[in-house]
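Field log, afternoon session.

UNIT: design team B
ACTIVITY: writing a sequence onto a fixed backbone
BACKBONE:
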């Protein structure tokens, strides 16, 4: 068996229900991660969701961020429960990219806070930006995930 394959769950390890984890995340983003005991992901997901709700009241495109975080929470908690049941790591960086979750959370907070400050001081009118240019955010997110997937494939091949 290759060394990168996780071992099946042991007798001492508590089995987690993937559907229950997804259902809890459906109720509130972050609850499913609390169930799977990935506390850092739970806190980051919940804080991001709350911030996105707050920002969607100011700029309507953040509604898409709320929807994305809601679905991401469901799928990710389902996946976390499956990884735990196979005996994999339980931390926030189970996919082999340490610190990526905290980096993305930090970038999200930095950009969101910077946008709020610039708008509050009247230096930039983000309503105009989001009205005309919000699809750029969607394209950038798509490119990020595609490039990350290609890098992972290349890394696994070597």
């Amino acid at each position: 068996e290759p060394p990168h394959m996780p071992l099946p769950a042991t007798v001492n390890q508590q089995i987690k229900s993937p559907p229950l984890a997804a259902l809890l995340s459906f109720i509130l983003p972050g609850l499913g991660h609390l169930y799977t005991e990935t506390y850092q992901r739970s806190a980051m997901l919940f804080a991001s969701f709350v911030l996105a709700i707050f920002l969607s009241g100011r700029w309507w495109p953040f509604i898409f961020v709320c929807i994305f975080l809601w679905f991401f929470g469901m799928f990710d908690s389902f996946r976390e429960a499956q990884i735990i049941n196979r005996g994999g790591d339980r931390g926030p960086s189970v996919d082999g990219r340490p610190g990526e979750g905290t980096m993305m959370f930090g970038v999200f907070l930095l950009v969101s806070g910077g946008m709020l400050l610039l708008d509050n001081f009247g230096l930039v009118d983000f309503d105009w930006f989001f009205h005309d240019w919000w699809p750029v955010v969607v394209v950038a997110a798509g490119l990020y995930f595609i490039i990350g997937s290609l890098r992972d494939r290349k890394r696994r091949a070597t």
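LOG NOTE: DSSP finds seven helices and no strands in the chain.
NEXT ACTIVITY: expression trials, pending approval
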